[in-house]
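Recall the central idea of this unit: under ordinary conditions, the amino acid sequence of a chain determines the structure it adopts. In this exercise we apply that idea directly, starting from the sequence alone.
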Amino acid sequence: MSRRIKYIRKPHNDRTDWKNLLRIFPYVWDYRGRVLVALLCLISAKLATITVPLVLKQVVDALDGNQVQVLVLPLTLLLAYGALRIASTAFNELRDTVFARVRYSAMHKLSARVLRHLHELSLRYHLERRTGGITRDLDRGARSISQILNRLVLTILPTIAEFVLVAALLFGQYPARFGIVVFITVVLYIGFTLMVTHWRMDLRHTMNRLDSIANAQAVDGLLNYETVKYFNNESWELERYNETMNAWEDVAVKTSTTMAMLNFGQGAIIAAGVSMIMIFAAEGVVQGDITLGDLVLVNALMLQLFLPLNFLGMMYRSLNYALADMDRILKLLERQPEIQDSSAAHDLRIDRAAVHFENVDFSYQAQRTILHEVSFEIPPGNRLAVVGPSGAGKSTLARLLFRFYDVTGGRVSIDGQDIRECSQLSLRRSIGIVPQDTVLFNESILYNIQYAKPSASREQVETAARMADIHQFIENLPQGYETIVGERGLKLSGGEKQRVAIARVILKRPHILVFDEATSNLDSRSEQAILRALRKVSAYTTTLVIAHRLSTIIDADKILVLDQGRIVERGRHSELLGQAGLYAHLWALQREERVLEESESMFLGG
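Accordingly, the structure predicted from this sequence is:
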């Protein structure tokens, strides 16, 4: 129950709708010519629409007057009446056609900008985000800009134009009371609609939030399908989803109920206004002040005005909902990336590819320091390995080198250049990585290898695959390089995914290589195949190897032993064994584990 209360609490409304509307103006400005044409079509359509009742009045007055003119004048007026209706429809459709490019282009540009911004946001944001919620917000936000432009140009502006024309006509040709009643009715209608709609907006905000939470829960469960199955937690996932959707259902029912109340109030106001106008018009006809045609004209004008005004109430609510959706996506655009290039950033210049960590301190959170005064250098072409217990801060070194985070103290440099003074694009162009958990796109093997260099030829891709010792495996697949690897590469084994990752980094041909525990989850046979491939790749590059299995780095030029964020030992394999410290202890433990695994394997094999 406590979770449910948390979900449906009243959100803090800090929307700035006028500011948001101004922020979408640049998306429209590129098509200002089309917007102008659409507005001209809008005005022309409304002029034709307002002229129709005037012609109808002339028809009625002609039929009610001199019978001699019946065969000539009404026929001409009736033809004009039909022509004006056709013109009104034609201008409306032309307006919609001309403005379509504006709406969909704005939708496209906002979607692209948000996606680019999401890629620019730092790693910390993406580690904390909920994928399902972000995709739902992105979808609603992109659609909202189209809806807002559609409502403003195709509904609200036409209705305002029509109201101004009708009011001018009534005040100009009839007693003031006609225009006053229309004005009061419209003001009451708009005031009532605004008051109730603003009250209902909290419900809409809550519905959106619950919808995003439910979608995030569903997507999260599906992305972790295997974990759900491992622990038999299908019912738990469904229970979480149902709990959120129950809260959403309650709010949705309240939204529907209050909408019925709003619609009834709007209808009552319109009915009262139209009735009052018709009473005045009928009284004028009886007294001879106005003609029967005037009565028909006033009635037609009221219907013409209040029918779209009734529709305007729904459009206003829709506009508010779209503004609420757009507000979420614009707030996302306001979020600044944690890591940004300085105004004086230059491209990284690689001469020797020497990497240097100088007294580096780092913490993800102020109260917990991960690295303490870490200093080391990787000379050009050398292979440096970092080992240590889990949680020692090994993988953090790779993230700092890629500048996913900035150091808290000290500096990281490449060929003497502080990487904070270089552009992120040039920095990451110079570094390649084979991560511990290789995640592939749900595309072909060719696409995943070629991702490192989209312009690479098929021959270059196959050469990289041969160096990674995976070409023959790919060729033996039914679809070869066109084989789809599945969501996150789940159709491939761990070793196959790692070799695809190695082929990908070979194709990139970086100056600096990082292997982040690339063999920690593999069996011995796969490990040896991966190690052979890694040695080919790193033979002529500066290489940082983050290792769990010490057997994979015994030939490293230097080994660092990291413990609780500090370098406690450094040297070559034989030197570290001679020190009888933490490295020697880890080596002994892993040898015991390997002997035990081999014994169990022989026993089971026997």
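The longest helix spans residues 234-287.
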